[in-house]
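Internal QA ticket QA-208
Title: Verify multi-chain structure generation after dependency bump
Assignee: T.L.

Test input:
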Amino acid sequence: MLIIRNLSKSYVAGTPVLKDISIEIAPRGVTAIIGPSGTGKSTLVRCINLLVEPTAGEIVFEGRDIAHLRGQPLREVRRKMGMVFQEYNLVERLTVMENLLTGRLGYTSAWDSFRRRFDPADIEHAFRLLDHVGLASFANTRADRLSGGQRQRVGIARALMQKPALLLADEPTSSLDPKTSVEIMQLMCGLAEENQIPVMINMHDVELAKRFANRILGMSGGRIVYDGPPEGLDENMLKTIYGGEGWLA
Amino acid sequence: MSAVHPATLREWHRFTPAERLARYAVYFFLVAAVVISAESIEIIPEFLYDAPEQFADMFHRMWPVAWGFYPEGVHEVLIETLDIAALSTVFGLLMGIPVGFLAARNAVPVPFLNYLARFILVSTRSVSTLLWALFFVAVFGPGALAGTCAIAFHSIGFIGKLFSEAVEDANKGPIEALTAAGASPMSLILYGYWPQVKPTFWAIALFRWDINVRESAVLGFVGAGGIGMALDTAINLFQWDRVATILVTVFVVVIIAEVVVTQIRKRII
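Actual output:
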């Protein structure tokens, strides 16, 4: 499904953020990436859909190295990967429905989108997703009038509008309260399961990661130091990932 | 808590001695600049002394205002002035907004186009409306068309500059999300940037219209149509009461424009 080989990324030459990362993502299941701040979790997730251009290495998606794609071929790959963001990244002044339809921009010509001529099937798909995320009556509400949890539901629905083959999430619950966080994780992982697509989530909350993921990647200093099931994540392992031990109650 | 031991007092200065010296140097140069400027424009004191007298004389000649002149000589050119202002704002927006997008480095990440757009913005703005008007009067002959083109071209730089700054200040988050969804650069502008800068667009449009009303009032002095032409004629014929009529009219129109713009802005932003 997705194979990352020897991936490195340096924003500044000589100081790599990601160091020689190799992982393989199965076609199903939830993979959570945990690790201290500044260790490259976000960069890793953004390298997969090339929001960040890797410095070296391969990203093999559906059997093809995409690490150096540009222009139209790159856009065609990106539209197969949905992404959910920490700050939701909705277009605040557009309605919920318009935000969902932006998930189809990769498939809609600029001219058609300018005239708001979206495929009726896309609109139907959007309504169905709104039913799923519990925002059926909010189609014409502007995004800036929603609460954090509601916004993230829209974010998830927008990502699924792409009918993606892979779902990426960058700290999807870090701006939400604990209860909403769990609801959002349930919704996202449930919908991914329903659509039979794998999810890669980068997150702070270790307990939440253990609860929802069937595979944990622990990162430290730009490398993967743990790769295994949540059960294997004992105190020693957490010390290796986060360093120190005073914080472990 | 007054028992602070002298030895524990630490010194703190906002500026280093070098910085302080630099600040005094700046003050010195500011004062020097004012003094030198005042000398070079050679203000003649005698002209200053009798200024109040001249003022009084002028007002005396303007009074009573020739209100009767309004319907026969002012109304028509006033409407022309407002037409020039409205049309030039529309044309200025049509030309300025695309150039503004091209100048924004985040929306159009092509350095060559950014520089080209910036060149257009700086050059249209640095030529004043009156110079543009002289140019277009030479091209199209005297009249409202020349005035409209002059203000429209001068507006490009103003509109484009403010607009490109708004685009560059747009929140990156939604742009990143749409990029991740595979949106093309054009779709990014339509669905990522445009909704974010739309309030600024309207603010700029109204503000520029407000300015253009005032600009079009003076353009007549170089033959580019509008109320300025009537003003020019009245001044040349020393018909000060008619001059007063025109000035009062312009003043009232500018105030009405100001009120209208403020009210509209309040409602849409």
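Spot checks passed. Chain A has a mean pLDDT of 93.
Status: verified.
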